[in-house]
Specification:
Blueprint: E1 15-19, H1 22-36, H2 46-53, E2 60-64, E3 67-79, E4 82-92, H3 101-115, E5 120-125, H4 130-139, E6 143-147, H5 151-155, E7 164-169, E8 188-192, H6 196-202, H7 204-223, E9 227-234, E10 239-245, H8 247-252
Parallel strand pairs: 4-5
Antiparallel strand pairs: 1-2, 2-3, 3-4, 5-7, 6-7, 8-10, 9-10
Helix pairs in contact: 1-2, 6-7
The protein binds coenzyme A.
Length: 253
């Protein structure tokens, strides 16, 4: 009997994270197209990333044994309360995932951002993307704070585009907050699929139903002033829940 192939063999070679060169920025397109099932016309050209990097953006690439295996792109943004860094694309190549490369990219991006005077980073995550939520909320200490549909969402129903806005306080809450169990501040949890891409390719209608249900639940919780700050995982049974609470509950917990 042929043994089942390992889905994500761990990366054992050291990972180098660096500020991306123009050539590397162009090379990021292939990773982006593969990760999001984009056509070549849908990925962001290297020269655009280069221009935004020249004006306050920060794109970092990850390399293992000389091979480009990931990147994190972010551009400068602004709102009433001041400037922030808006991250628009975090990708780690298949075969290198779940070995800490995504975390290393974001931690280095935080370091670079704080050195340039940013205090906040934001990005959006597809409502069913438990892997990405776990990294953002549990590992890094960001919070999911609002629904944020994108125009691409309507244009490209074949792609699960980002729709939940996350905010990372770069100078406040430390990454990977250790919490006593059980959580006393947990008000609600919303289950999301363990592997939304596998679900979407096996049963697109089921994935669409999940997405609608999860988005409706999250919209209601955000409207009630809550945010999600952790993904509770049952790794053995491959199940995941977004944990919602409020600042007031956290302080009294
Ligand atoms: C999301 C992504 C960038 C994460 O990169 P990564 O290098 O695998 O991330 P890390 O290894 O640093 O951290 C991943 C964490 O998620 C956990 N994880 C793995 N599979 C998971 C799943 N199905 N659900 C929840 N968490 C999961 C890992 O165990 C790890 O947590 P741990 O440190 O507590 O063990 C990568 O999976 C990817 O490129 N995905 C496709 C593109 C994408 O969705 N990008 C995000 C857009 S917002």
């Amino acid at each position: 009997m042929t043994p089942a192939p390992s889905r994500e063999p761990p990366t054992t070679d050291p990972v180098e994270i660096r500020i991306a060169s123009l050539d590397e920025l162009e090379a990021c397109r292939a990773l982006e197209e593969e990760a999001f099932d984009f056509a070549p016309t849908e990925s962001i050209p290297g020269w655009v990333r280069h221009m935004t990097d020249s004006h306050g953006g920060i794109t970092l690439t990850a390399h293992v044994a000389g091979q480009l295996v990931g990147f994190s792109y972010a551009l400068p943004a602004f709102e009433d309360t001041g400037p922030y860094l808006f991250s628009l694309g975090l990708v780690v190549k298949r075969g290198h995932r779940s070995s800490g490369i995504g975390r290393s990219l974001k931690l280095r991006q935080r370091h670079e951002a704080v050195a340039r005077g940013y205090r906040v980073m934001r990005w959006t995550i597809g409502s069913l993307n438990s892997h990405s939520f776990h990294l953002a909320l549990t590992v890094l200490g960001a919070r999911a704070i609002a629904m944020h549909p994108t125009p691409l969402d309507a244009l490209q129903s074949r792609v699960y585009m980002d729709e939940v806005l996350c905010e990372w306080d770069l100078v406040g809450r430390p990454a990977r907050v250790a919490r006593p169990e059980p959580r006393r501040d947990l008000l609600h949890s919303v289950e999301i699929p363990w592997d939304h891409r596998a679900m979407a390719s096996a049963d697109p209608d089921l994935a669409a139903q999940w997405r609608q249900g999860v988005a409706a639940a999250m919209r209601e919780l955000f409207a009630r002033g809550m945010y999600a700050d952790e993904v509770i995982l049952d790794r053995r049974r491959r199940r995941a829940w977004l944990a919602f609470s409020t600042g007031a509950d956290r302080q009294s917990a």
